[in-house]
Amino acid sequence: MTTDRRRFLKGAGLAAAAAGVPLAAPTAASASAFADSDLDLGRLCGRYQWLVGDHHTHSQYSYDAMYRIDDIARGGRAHGADWIVFTDHGHAEHEKVSVEPTEADFLAARRKYPDLLLWHGMEWNVPGAEHATVFFQAGADQAAKLREFERAFDWRLTNSEASSPANEALALRALRWLADEERARRIHAPVVLVNHPLRNGRVAPHELRAYRDAAPGIVIGMEGAPGAQADGFPKPLGNGGARGGYVNNPGANSWPGYPAEAYRTHGGWDWATAKVGGLWDSLLAEGKPWWITTNSDSHYNRGDTLVRPDVPGDWYDTHGKFPDPLDSGTPQLLAPYADFYPGEFSRTYVGVTRRSLEGVLDGLRAGRIWLTHGGLVSELEVGAYGGGSAATLGGRLRVRRGSDVTVVVRARLASRPNGGGSVPRLARLDVVAGPVTGPAADRDTMTAPGTRVAESFEPRWAPGRQVVFRHTFRNVRDPFYLRVRGSNGDGEPTPDVVGQANPFEDLWLYANPIFVDLR
């Protein structure tokens, strides 16, 4: 299901906070709701179609999942997904026998569901780190190119799991390989997104920066929130898990600088994203693109009636695939049913100019992305204007020093019950802003002290109502960025309690940033 872009804001632009100095305080005129008649929304941001998608799913070709490719596509389609990437785990048996059969099933799904935009990718075991989505297009050579990458650079096949300088260097060689293959036109439009970055604390801040800088435009960001959001539901006997599987503690390969709270989700979101002035903000403060996404990480979906047939424990290691799932007729609620179908709970919206693979790729790389859990809102648009120009999500606004910059936020409130059985209520929208201070001297920096919530809005709630807010940054003296988030509750995101975290009770939305540069 798609949402046609509505006409958005009047004028053009957005403005920000001075580097190293506090953001301008809002005035009564600069933080107010106003009527739709005041706006020409299309002039500010252009007109996009917003497509819902998921870049992280698993099938029976993964050693820890069960679904057919067709099941994932059909389930995602039923829950409103427009685009899906199939990303089975790198594994010795997968590389040996599973890549071509996956490609055949993928092509069959493309033929069966022509309204879905589908990719055959993989979940890469990143040397010296953990996991990342990798996908690209290679036509008739798709399977061969995926195998070539997996064989040369996956830590399960190269004995390069441990955190070490040598293994970190291998990860960078893999990214440069993708760039070289794209330049040579052997693959097209590769994309890499770091998955569940702090689940095990194994991806250090300097590694994120190194990935980004090694392959700009290919490594475009990270999961702001992991999949497996249903893992936090309370379960019998107190054996509940944690949202996203974030139930871990530091290990031998973890970066030692992360605090204990980084190993838990906060309102379902990775600590790197959820903490204002934290790791994500420290990356944005460098003024470089680093986008966030969310997804299902679908392995076993809560409430599904499908079950995996009983097979010997070494089945996958000798077949590279599990048998097709069977319909038990009974909704499954206990472990390992910790996931949702694509589009069912976690939604990544991408703004596109055309409904096509290229359209989605363009939107992802441009950062025209906003994310929501549990249907907190059905539509969101963010734009900024000032100095005669405008920008939307992922964009850059250039203004003269001393200009005013106004950000406008429009949301369509939810009108339908979500999977938790109730219509979610958006309680607050925040504009978060911080100075752009340039490349970090310390590549392991994970704080941005100048970033703060510049303004909060409390929409008057009614099902399906459209709300529009604006905030103006006065007399902008230095470059900055801004981003928007929202919640159904008050206060900052708090750590989810292991075994007691119903995901539908604590909902958040996040939008990717807009940068404001001075000319």
Name a few traits of the molecule:
alpha+beta; disordered N terminus; 519 residues; 5-stranded antiparallel beta sheet
How would you sum up this structure, described in words?
The protein is an alpha+beta fold. The chain has a domain at 7-46 and 379-518. It is built from eleven helices and 23 strands. The chain has helices spanning 41-45, 69-78, 92-112, 142-153, 155-158, 165-183, 205-214, 271-274, 279-284, 315-319, 357-366; strands at residues 2-4, 31-33, 49-57, 83-89, 117-125, 131-137, 188-194, 219-223, 291-293, 306-307, 326-327, 346-352, 369-373, 377-386, 389-392, 396-399, 405-413, 428-435, 452-457, 466-473, 480-487, 508-511, 514-518. The strands form three sheets. The protein has a 16-stranded mixed sheet that branches. Helix 7 (205-214) links the parallel strand 7 (188-194) and strand 8 (219-223). Helix 3 runs antiparallel to helix 4 and helix 6 runs parallel beside helix 7 (205-214). The two termini are 41 Å apart. Mean pLDDT is 91; it is low at 1-38. Keywords: Signal. Pfam families: PHP. It comes from Amycolatopsis rifamycinica. One of its GO terms (molecular function) is 5'-3' DNA exonuclease activity. Residues 1-24 form the signal peptide.
